Amino acid sequence: MRFDILTLFPGLFRGVFEESIVRRAIDAGLVTIAIHNIRDYAPGKHRITDDAPYGGGGGMVMKVEPIAYALEAILGEDLPLRQKRTGLVEVPIVLLTPAGRLFSQAMAREFERYGRLVLICGRYEGVDERVSQLFATHEVSIGDYVLSGGEIAAMAIVEAVTRLVPGVLGDMRAIVEDSHSADLLEHPHYTRPPEFRGAKVPEVLLSGDHAEIARWRRREALRRTLERRPDLLEKASLSDQDRLWVEALRRGETPSQEGE
Ligand code: ADE
Fold this sequence. Notes:
Number of strands: 9
Order of helices and strands: EHHEEEHHEHEHEHHEEHHH
Number of helices: 11
Low-confidence stretches: none
Helix content: 25-40%
Largest sheet: 5 strands, parallel
Radius of gyration: 23 Å
CATH class of the largest domain: Alpha Beta
Number of domains: 2
Mean pLDDT: 93
Bound molecules: adenine
Shape: elongated
Strand order of the largest sheet: 2-1-6-5-7
């Protein structure tokens, strides 16, 4: 998987990509990340990357030319044109903006399948609309809040997509994918000690009864999802047993955290 990131702040990415899972994926040759400073592509002695908005108002707007020249240097002139003409995406060109479609696990899976991704980090005041019109295949937001720029959003997407690249998580991936993990919130986790300041690990987890543990985890995942993200339950694939459980929770018949 190859990522090309266009940014005015390349330094922001260093620490994040030099540790942990992304670092391991790079070291294993499974992922390549190229960070491009948009300023390097800005024409003129002063390498200006932003300007005042037409129509007035506050803030500055990122200019189209430096981003256009950067994209053409990275991808060639033909590819972005062809994508816009045919509507067929070969390499997603993603503009990070709070006005974009909401990023999701499904979108991470979609991006991973392309094998290559270009991420354009905008500043929050805005990016000249012609970047979307002429180049971007996707406009994506990571949540309903405003960041100062798209850099942290790009990091989140790189991390989420990298985890899905075959080989990065090894055996873990199959488990994560099989458990419908994206449909429901995860069940609570515990490790030693069995009791800390009066807070006990649920009895069932110490029982060694794997069928009962699986049932408990599923029920706790349903409980959390119902309490915190009821919108996810509408889309989740639920068994008949799950539905009975959700109904019981809704009626306030909530079996104890400790299981039965
Ligand atoms: N830039 C500023 N805020 C953002 C957000 N929430 N998602 C993606 N890019 C952004």
